[in-house]
Specification:
By secondary structure, this protein is mainly alpha-helical. Helix content is 69%, strand content 1%. Strands 1-2 form a two-stranded antiparallel sheet.
């Protein structure tokens, strides 16, 4: 059926074009012979093709454009006739004898254009006559195209300021009245289309109306181009008249489109100065109108206007733009109780963007917008609409993009509350945006309170939310997220050691809730940040044991010991052993022998109880030997105990070559060049090549080493 309808429409269009071209041919022949009566006769027959009701607006437009081109030629002929002495008044009356009203009015508009140019009558009288006469066509499509033609041929002949048609009797009000009247009639015709035809063709009619909407909107564009329409005229006459028509038509499509037209065609400063009038119309629109889009575009235009020059910012303050927009949005949301959450969030997102552009120093305004959004979200629970979620992300990203400083954003008390209404995945996305902003701008977060607030914001990366299992997350994405958290921890710094210790404690409290899969990523950066603090506390005047209640290296090491223990449950024994050895070296630098010995003891316990893989044992024993060799804090007894233990572990490795290499490495523990009390040549030699061991020829690093280590003695 659809195919047949399209084919029929093509046939009707082809027939209409053929008839139009045939009559246009005869019209041209009459024009060439200066035969006025035949020219009018054939032009009327040509224009009769536009009386068809069988074509869709799109096809009708093609036919109309062909007729429009022919009418331009006819207009030129009428001009020549007036130069040859033909009275334009007689011509204006003559064309009104055409038999059908539609051709008659097209011809009347064409002659009227020449009539205005001749200046034999005031432009306002001719325009008024034409706009009134066009009421004779009440068919929506034919009437819209006729009035569009009238608007087209008259736009350069309006009695505007500076125009050649501006006279004593002609004022800007006449031009304005003509355009407004034509706009009103065209809008009525356009709205009438919605109520013609059966209900089953509603979608088709809406599509056709959408194709014709620019014909109506062009009137507002013409109105905006009139030089005489200044701010006062716009405020007192133009805007109230246009809004009256928009509100009274009670049509969803018309209201949405025309409100958008008003916002787009008139100057920004006009919108700013008439904000209250414009915003007052929004609650009166139909509930089904997409107000969020129109209002968002208005705020976007005003935001761009504010960003264009700092000189215009006082105007925004003078008219209290934020207060008016905020109140208007509240009234719209209240009036449309069934407005989807997407619409409300979009409005608040646009208002926040506007606020950040116009009032960047007023954090209370931004927080007020976020608070209003929280109030709207409070009855919704977690958002499930993806589009609404994207708007929430845009809302939360706006302050970050504007201030480039998370510390400033943290001052917005309602900011964390908004994040409570997004799901765990969106929370992660927002957390990554925050971390990337911090790293990009190298933001310094230097107090424990701010760190605590920050980690509450990014808790989607710190721990599982809503019972979501991290096993469902892509492994690469998970690693990227946790590495970002690790980089963030490394960026936290404060020269005040007391405050830095508080920061470390705050971070520790948050990351320990992350579960076994996250700890291997987040514990190491925390350990190294703590060791950096230990180095800060090693000044020559510092007392390592400190005053009561103050931060001391010993207190930091105690915290580190407890923190590394959490890796036992992961399990990550190799990582924990490495961190214990790092802490032992730091304790060595702080001359804390008991602390260093405790860390080595923990490392040995881990080696014995948790590390069973032979390759991991080889790596671990070499790490222990290397760290022990660099230690200078131990007394003879403690060092002997640790050294003998390491040598014993080396002798018990699974593979003989690994035993040989490890024992050889242990021999260096008995001879340290920069420590006089650690130069025991006999024991070194005993370890390396004791003559009591049965030897096979295994040449390792030039030494002839034993292959049976069971009877090793010290």
């Amino acid at each position: 059926m659809m195919v047949d309808g399209v084919e029929d429409e093509e046939k009707w269009l082809a027939a209409g074009i053929a008839g139009l071209q045939q009559n246009a041919f005869y019209m041209h022949r009459a024009l060439d012979s200066n035969n006025l009566r035949d020219a009018l006769k054939y032009s009327a027959q040509m224009l009769s093709e536009l009386r068809t009701s069988k074509l869709s607006p799109q096809k009708y437009y093609q036919l109309y454009m062909r007729a429009f081109d022919e009418l331009r030629k006819l207009e030129m002929f009428f001009k020549e006739e007036t130069r040859r002495g033909c009275s334009i008044i007689d011509l204006y009356e003559l064309v009104q004898h055409a038999g059908n009203i539609l051709p008659r009015l097209y011809l009347l508009c064409t002659v009227g254009s020449v009539y205005i140019k001749s200046k034999e009558a005031p432009a306002k009288d001719v325009l008024k006559d034409l706009v009134e006469m066009c009421r004779g066509i009440q068919h929506p499509v034919r009437g819209l195209f006729l009035r569009s033609y009238l608007s087209q041929i008259s736009r350069d002949k309006l009695p505007d300021i500076g125009s050649e048609y501006e006279g004593d009797a002609d004022t800007v009000n006449d031009a304005m009245e003509f355009v407004l009247q034509n706009f009103t009639e065209m809008n009525k015709l356009w709205v009438r289309m919605q109520h013609q035809g059966p209900a089953r063709e509603k979608d088709k009619r809406e599509k056709e109306r959408s194709e014709l909407r620019d014909l109506v909107g062009k009137n507002l564009h013409v109105l905006s181009q009139i030089e005489g329409v200044d701010l006062d005229t716009y405020k007192e006459t133009v805007l109230p008249r246009v809004l009256e028509q928009v509100v009274n038509c009670k049509d969803e499509i018309a209201q949405c489109y025309l409100m958008d037209c008003i916002i787009q065609v008139f100057p920004d400063e006009y919108h700013l100065q008439t904000l209250e009038i414009l915003l007052g119309a929004f609650p009166q629109l139909q509930p089904s109108v997409d107000i969020k889009t129109v209002l968002s575009r208005l705020m976007e235009r005003l935001s761009n206007y504010a960003a264009s020059s700092t000189e215009v910012l006082p105007e925004f303050l003078q008219v209290e733009a934020f207060s008016k927009l905020n109140n208007a949005i509240g009234k719209v949301i209240e009036a449309q109780a069934d407005m989807p959450i997407l619409g409300a969030v979009t409005l608040y997102s646009s208002l926040l963007t506007f606020t950040l552009h116009v009032h960047p120093d007023r954090l209370d305004y931004a927080d007020q917008v976020l608070g209003a959004c929280v109030k709207k979200l409070s009855g919704e629970g977690k958002l499930e609409d993806n589009r609404a979620t994207k708007q929430i992300v845009a809302l939360l990203s706006a302050p970050l993009d504007k201030y480039n400083d998370i510390v400033t954003v943290l001052k917005l008390s309602n900011y964390p509350s908004v994040m409570e209404y997004v799901d765990s995945e969106t929370n992660k996305v927002m957390a990554m945006v925050i971390i990337q902003s911090i790293m990009k701008n190298n933001t310094q977060i230097s107090t424990a309170d701010k760190v605590g607030a920050l980690f509450e914001l990014i808790k989607g990366l710190i721990r599982d939310l809503d019972g979501a299992a991290h096993d469902q997350v892509d492994e690469d994405d998970f690693k990227e997220e946790q590495n970002s958290v690790a980089r963030l921890i490394q960026m936290l710094q404060n020269d005040d050691t007391e405050e830095m210790f508080k920061i470390i404690c705050t971070v520790r409290k948050h990351i320990l809730t992350g579960g076994p899969k996250r700890l291997p990523f987040t514990v190491p950066p925390l350990v190294f940040s703590s060791l950096k603090l230990v180095r800060q506390l090693q000044g020559p005047e510092e007392n390592p044991f400190g005053e009561e209640g103050s931060t001391t290296p010993k207190k930091v090491f105690q915290l580190l010991n407890q923190t590394i223990e959490t890796l036992y449950g992961v399990p990550a024994p190799e990582l924990a052993l490495r961190l214990y050895l790092q802490c032992a070296e730091a304790a060595n630098d702080s001359d804390l022998e008991p602390v260093a010995y405790e860390f080595f003891t923990q490392a040995y316990i881990l080696y014995e109880e948790e590390i069973s893989d032979s390759r991991a044992q080889v790596t671990a024993i070499h790490l222990i030997i290397g760290t022990l060799q660099r230690m200078h804090v131990f007394g003879v007894e403690n060092r002997d105990t640790l050294t003998h233990k390491a040598t014993g572990y080396s002798a018990k490795l699974l593979k003989k070559p690994d035993q040989c290499r490890a024992v050889y490495a242990c021999s260096h523990l008995f001879w340290v060049d920069d420590q006089d009390n650690m130069k025991d040549g006999e024991r070194k030699l005993c370890i390396v090549c004791s003559n009591t061991w049965p030897v096979q020829s295994i040449s390792i690093l030039g030494w002839c080493l034993p292959t049976h280590m069971d009877d090793i003695s010290y």
